[in-house]
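Researcher: Predict the fold of Cytochrome P450.
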Amino acid sequence: MTQATLLRQIIDYSSRADPYPLYAELRKTPVLQEGDDLFVVSTYWEIKSLLHDPRISSDARNLSPSAAGTLLQEEEASALPPAFLRLDPPEHDRLRRMTMRPFGPPETPRRVHNMRGELARIVSGLIDGFGDRNRIDVVDDFSYPFPVTVICRLLGVPREDEALFHSWADTIAAGLDPDPGQDPGERRRVTQQARTELGKYLSGLIDERSGAPGDDMLSALVTQHGEDGQMTRMELLSTASLLLIAGHETTVNLITNGMLTLLRNPDVLERLRGDPGLALPIVEELLRFEPPVQLLPQRTTLADIDINGVTIPKGASVWLVLASGNRDPQRFPDPDRFDPDRKDNQHLGFGSGIHNCFGAPLARLEAQLALTELARRLNSPRLVEDPPPYRQNAVLRGPRHLNITFDGFHA
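Model: Structure tokens for Cytochrome P450 follow.
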């Protein structure tokens, strides 16, 4: 097997259920070059170094013309400017600071903490909604609706509009994760229509909040005036869309991968049932063992960079394979074992550096509450099929469905 073939195998859907043996093979060449313009970095310390290197750009506009056509670099057409996730300093820093003020420390330190009660109620309501069934799809019945409902409450979407919001989120998510049997042109049309409708809806909400702000995050973004000025309407729309899509998609995978891993490790599931405090280290180990974001393909170099004996030229496309770094035996002992008692678990599940996941505190809390309650309330949960069917997406990797059976549940 050539290294180029290996890389295409990793992207290929047939490897989605278990890409980790391929990652192990990839780590034998810590900085792999494919063609002239694509470099794949797969080992922990090299990835960590590049995530903190100011010469690495997240802005696709810095790619060389030839690198812009490399694998996975296609951008969805959008009328919105790039969100701060895909910008570099100083634009990134300004927009991230402005978004952070109403979301977390230091200006709003208890925003996420104060949501705990409401999150717990949403989780309980979803589990109660299973009714008298003894079989569910964890994705459709739980891990998809939970984070979308949360982001609606956070942004201040009225309850009566949440179903509409869910529909747009599902359509846009499907666009990120294409069905090979679907006509690509039709998929793009439907996805773009959902993005347009979502944009119009958010624009209307922004107008409402400008005149009558509430205590939600969108109101805070609309009305804030600080040292960084005020967001433009396009920046507000781009940021709100980012919060919806990025926060929703990654949390779906974190919860679903988490439930799958617990069902494959029944001893850990049983421990969690008896000790809810174990949820915190379990989620941290999940972020290492089965991270919701497997790789970051949208990076480029602002200068020639030498790393591990390889020179990556300016303007090249750089992939950082976070999930491979998380299984690097040079950093984590016995890396292919799921171990919630693992010490010094400084994983790459939320990235690192200036682009460290903005929503990490909320995602952690959502996953902790979700997995604790599923473990506590479901009697003898069992997988219907293993491996389950996976999503097409190689970047946002997780089961598309996770069917389980159980013998009723506790109140």
